[in-house]
């Protein structure tokens, strides 16, 4: 039996294992179809996502709560079109959106195969900054639950800080009972998942399965992330050999 | 002595009586010059103002505090350039920015003359959503204090809601001891100052002395606001005659 340098592989969840962008596209379209049968402005979803992304940075830093984030992205998107919507309407929108969650979330192609292979060699865990009330549902909807038992799900809100803060990685290693040198982090966010992990002493793999996001990342930072699950397996193998 | 239908003229402050845009331009340039002698990215101020405006909507709805707004606009602007700045640095930036406040704030041309004329016929007051700790300093820096005694300054944060919420106008009328029908509101924000005032029962004058903002407003809503102080005096005279 081969000896592996790493004992645990940590994964980010959103945009790494599950197609969160597609989920928003499908989930928002579904919700608007139900609630606004006469339609919404053509670029409404774009405005919603713009505000979501801006507000998410405030959520990550605990300036906003998840409930505030969810309300404000809805209210600010409508305000861009000159319409004042109430908090009650924002909450109702969110409720309907969440009801469609399970049927609109999918893993990226090849994700399940990659995870299945890795699970034969390593213990697997999730280190996520995502919405705490949804992360288990996401694993289940994407068929990932069998590979990530509940105790291997580290949600940053429960730690108190968000990645790239080292306390999140410290909590993740503690939860899995490993030292930093015994684990690898795999994720799409260069700052949170790669630089943050490395700063804590973990090795890291930059992996962006969404082609559009990978192209944007490449254009922005001048480096190309891995984009295929198979590449992650190869890279991990290479890293094992380099340490062996 | 002429009898006037109106007893009180309420004014918005920022972008109506004082040139808040110019103040940001000058004040941010001054602060960056002091703190970052090697310069900041060319579009940094633009990013700062973008985040300021986005976050201001959250401040107006009391989702963020003024302190959070001030910190986050700084941190998010730097993050757009890939740099993580601390809360401590954001607070220091704000301190230096505030130190230069008095020397970077000016009334729009003709504002003092307009206010002086009006003060002979009406009691004047301010109804503002602006930063509560700065509004008195703004009146003073702009030379407006003699026309707006402290008790005539209604700051929405002290009311608990922001314009266009009717409670702000109710508090303003109560502070000045008038009924809605006895006062006129003058301001640059169509929603907050004009529609909000009218919804409460006040007459209102849409006045945008910043030429660029007036052009944008015209392009957006298809109506042209008044842009000259003299036009405000004429319009008020016309409204008096219509009621007489």
Q: Approximately what portion of the residues of chain A adopt beta-strand conformation?
A: 5-15%
Order of the strands making up the biggest sheet of chain A:
3-2-1-4-5
Q: Give the largest chain-chain interface (CB within 8 Å).
A: A-B, 12 and 12 residues
Average pLDDT metric of chain A? 95
Q: What name does CATH use for the topology of the largest domain in chain A? A: Rossmann fold
Query: In percent, how helical is the residue content of chain A?
Result: 40-55%
Molecular structure report:
The structure is a homodimer of 244-residue chains. With 244 residues, chain A is of the alpha/beta class. Chain A has two domains: 8-19 and 106-243, HAD superfamily/HAD-like (Rossmann fold); 21-99, DNA polymerase, domain 1. Chain A has eleven helices and five strands, in the order βαααααβαβααβαβαα. Chain A has a five-stranded parallel beta sheet with strand order 3-2-1-4-5, with helices on both faces. The first copy, chain A, is elongated and about 60 Å long. In chain A, 40% of the residues are buried. The mean pLDDT of chain A is 95. The A-B interface holds A 51, 54, 57-58, 61, 63-64, 68, 72, 75-76, 79 and B 51, 54, 57-58, 61, 63-64, 68, 72, 75-76, 79.
